[in-house]
Amino acid sequence: MAKKKITDIVSELASDFLRENGYELYNAEFVKEGRDWFLRVFIDLAEGTGEDGEPVYVGTEDCEKVSRFLSEKLDQEDPIEQNYLLEVSSPGMDRALVKPEHYERYIGQEIEVKLYKAMDGQKNITGVLKDFKSGEDDYLVTVSDQDGRNWSLNLADIAKSNLAVIF
Fold first, then answer.
1. Residue 148 three-state SS
2. How confident is the model at residue 1, as a pLDDT?
3. What are the φ/ψ torsions at residue 35 (nearest 5 degrees)?
4. Which one in 12, 48, 52, 74 has a CA-CA gap of 20 to 30 Å to 39?
């Protein structure tokens, strides 16, 4: 049987705890930077808005709580062979859109998209995420830019996309 991805193991270990405490796993990554390995866990509040309808965000105390739990669980289970640093944080206001459910959640929001290669002379597109749907071979992302142009992009052509931070 194939070895499970470390991010999948983290998801399984944390799922009940996160749900019971009003959090959700936004994303997790296990990456090597230089000589060091990092297990980065991004959490969000399961209910992203308060009673007044305004957005609420993950705080330092939330990250500490999840970090303590995960650290203890990972020490017990010991699924990671190499030494690593555990980081638990919020995905931030300019959160990366990584999974299909992220795109679905933020339809109607302004996003910044960086393409692997230019399309019609553009490699960076900023606009409102209008639609996200499954296409024939890939997901299709529709973004309406400030000039009113609708861009239909294959998810595979997107190098990076984030929520735009507007002040």
1. coil
2. 34
3. -95, -10
4. 48
pLDDT, tens only, 42-76: 999 987 666 777 777 899 999 999 999 999 999 99
User: 40 with 28: CB under 8 angstroms?
Assistant: yes
Burial of residue 37 (CB within 10 Å: 0-12, 13-18, 19+) is middle
pLDDT value, residue 31: 95
Tokens of 95: 């959160």
Residue 11, C-beta contacts closer than 8 angstroms, at least 6 positions apart: 25, 28
One-letter amino acid for residue 47 of the chain: E
Q: What are the φ and ψ backbone dihedral angles of 80, each rounded to 5 degrees?
A: -110, 120
What residues contact residue 63 under an 8 Å CB cut-off, 6+ apart?
A: 43, 88, 89, 90
